[in-house]
Design brief:
binds copper (II) ion, Immunoglobulin-like
C-alpha cells in the first residue's frame, strides 16, 4: 500500500468515526421536565410524575411564586413525613429552579407549613 493510499484509508477511518459519533442517539442530552406542566409547582402536584419516565441527569424545572413556595430535595424520611430531612438540606427559593435528577429515587417537597401535606411533594425514580 502506497503512502497516499494509507493516508486515504486513515482519513476514511476518521470520517467513519465522526459519522458514528454524530449518529449517537441522544446520548448525554438531558431532558427538561417542567414540573406540573402549565400549573407549575403547586398543590397536588404529587401525581404529576405518574406515567412519565425519567433518566438520571434529566432536569426538573420548578416554576412557582417564591413568596409562597420553595423546593427542597429531601430523603425518603423527609418525603414520607413532610420534613426537611436531612436537616440543613438546601432550600431552593428562586421561583425558577432547575434540579438535576440523580440515579435512583429523588424526593422533593415544598417546606412551607402544610404544603407538602397538601400534595406539594414529588417522588421520582430515575433510571
Ligand atoms: Cu408550597
Amino acid at each position: 500500500m502506497g503512502e497516499r493510499m494509507r493516508g486515504a484509508a486513515a482519513m476514511g477511518t476518521v470520517m467513519l468515526c465522526l459519522v458514528l459519533l454524530l449518529q449517537q442517539p441522544e446520548v448525554g442530552s438531558a431532558a427538561i421536565h417542567t414540573v406540573g406542566d402549565d400549573l407549575g409547582w403547586t398543590f397536588n402536584v404529587s401525581s404529576w410524575p405518574i406515567g412519565k419516565t425519567f433518566q438520571a441527569g434529566d432536569v426538573l424545572a420548578f416554576n412557582y411564586t417564591p413568596s409562597v413556595h420553595n423546593v427542597v430535595v429531601v430523603d425518603k424520611v423527609g418525603y414520607n413525613w413532610c420534613l426537611v430531612n436531612p436537616i440543613g438540606a438546601t432550600v431552593h427559593r428562586s421561583g425558577k429552579d432547575e434540579i438535576k435528577l440523580l440515579k435512583g429515587m429523588n424526593y422533593l417537597i415544598c417546606s412551607f407549613p402544610g404544603h407538602c401535606q397538601m400534595g406539594m411533594k414529588l417522588s421520582i425514580s430515575a433510571d
